[in-house]
Amino acid sequence: MKKLAAAFAMSLLLAGCASGGSSSERERFFRAAGKPVANPSALVKAELAFARLAREEGQWTAFRETATADAVMFVPNLSSAQVWLKGKADPAQAVDWQPHKIHMSCDGIMGVVTGAWQAANGSTGSFVTIWEKQDARERRLRGQEEEWKWVFDHGVPVDTPLPEPDFVETEVASCKGGPVPPNIPAPENGKKIGGQSLDKTFQWSATQAADGKRGLTVLLWNGEAYRPVVDEDFGVPQP
């Protein structure tokens, strides 16, 4: 994990050098103007802090403290995270995890992280977490540090551990055009919970059909249309 974080930091440095400083200049301009700026490295920081909190304070304690009041999880059905987590005892050793890919809205308010996890019993898996910046404008005006909390989280086991990438892959939605998010209906007699960034360049929907089948879709605006960056079918919960 340390190797991955260092590689990501180096990739940001090289990207800044290659652009001749234009990226950082643009960021300073927008920050001075009070406009939000997408910063995928903030989600790397949030994920690493989340994993560290789980190791130091306990797994479910960390999940409770970093989730929004209306966050949801598949456990195994689509449920309120805070209700499911309330009073849940922490395991002796927390699961560890690392971010592999990040997709973020143009305004930097919302993003999704996918990656790998490893449990103490040797099992491994993949995860997807959707993060939302909290009270961004108010905190900026007060000179407070940004705060991220997750609104959706789910992990599944895999037979073969995911390969560790050399760098954390990142993608930011296009700021061009006038995105109008599609209306993704809830399954018949099923449930749908989702949201979108303030600039509408990022949209997510978690669904569960009447037969129990679960899914997650995350759409990112590319300047002309929405493209699915996460399209997961988690199947029907096993008894």
Rough outline: globular
Question: Largest sheet, if any?
Answer: 7 strands, mixed
Terminal residue distance: 34 Å
Q: Major sheet: order of its strands?
A: 2-1-6-5-4-3-7
Order of helices and strands: HHHHEEHEEEHEEEEEE
Could you name the CATH class? Alpha Beta
Query: What is the averaged pLDDT score?
Result: 86
| Beta-strand content bin | 35-45%
Uncertain regions spanning at least 5 consecutive residues: 1-33
Q: Roughly how much helix do the residues carry, as a percent range? A: 25-40%
User: How many domains make up the coordinates?
Assistant: 1
SSE-based structural type: alpha+beta
Per DSSP, the total helix count is 6
The name of the CATH architecture is Roll
* Cα gyration radius (Å): 18 Å
CATH topology tier name: Nuclear Transport Factor 2, Chain: A
Number of strands: 11
